[in-house]
Predict the structure.
Amino acid sequence: MNAKKFVLFSMLLVAVSLQALGQQRGESQRRGEGQRGRPGNERMVEAMKERLDLSDDQVTKLKEIYKKSADEFRKLREETAEENHDRREEFRKLRNKQQEEVSTLLTEEQLKELKKWREERQSQRRRPRPKPENQNE
């Protein structure tokens, strides 16, 4: 009986450790430190510079906007989980504020290209999910 408890406890410990490792890896990717996942702020600005033909002044200001936003998002993430619903609304407000600030830096032509680029990225994310094979219709 003790051997069964030991095996179950060991399996539980391994599962919890793997989950914690996965969360830690996911956080580093969200911060832009991972090789995969969403691009970090630096890579995003570089991609925007290339795609939108930004001036050096626009690049500098964009980096400042993204840095300030990242700090604000980090503060929100550190708050307790009890305020989860309120935090979602705060994240939405911060994202909108960030996008408004970015929009003030860009020309009309750059804004059109950015909108087109965002739509392309959205359509790439919306891949149809395969239906389960044993689903009753």
Summary: DSSP finds five helices and no strands in the chain.
